[in-house]
Amino acid sequence: MKNSRFVIDKLTKIFEQGIITSKDLSNELMNILKSKRDEFVFRMKLVSKDEFDVLRKRVENLENKMNKSTIKRKKKIKSVRKS
């Protein structure tokens, strides 16, 4: 219940700020979820803070590579024409 209350509070704050577009909303929601994930992992003390920062950076790099590859694939699909 406490976690759902946290998410609801964050969403109401977003609406109060006037974020209207779905892209802004999805970006903000992803940021909130990532911060909660980071907080959870850090609280579990699975790794030290330094290791955690390194691992988080590696995950971000992998996510960026995945996004770039999907964009390239979409461009390839659009550029191919049927005759």
Structure description:
This protein has 83 residues and is an all-alpha fold. The chain folds into two domains: 1-46, no CATH class; 47-83. Helices cover 84% and strands 0% of the residues. Helix 1 packs antiparallel against helix 2. The longest helix has 31 residues, at 49-79.
Q: Describe the sheet with the most strands.
A: none
Determine the mean pLDDT. Answer: 78
Q: How far is it from the N-terminal to the C-terminal residue, by CA?
A: 57 Å
Strands, total number: 0
Helical content, roughly?
Answer: over 70%
Succession of helices and strands: HHH
What value does the Rg take, in angstroms? Answer: 18 Å
Strand content: under 5%
User: How many distinct domains?
Assistant: 2
Task: Compile the SSE list and pairings.
Blueprint: H1 2-17, H2 22-44, H3 49-79
Helix pairs in contact: 1-2
Keywords:
83 residues; flat; mainly alpha; single chain
Quick recap of the structure?
With 83 residues, the protein is mainly alpha-helical. The chain has two domains: 1-46, no CATH class; 47-83.
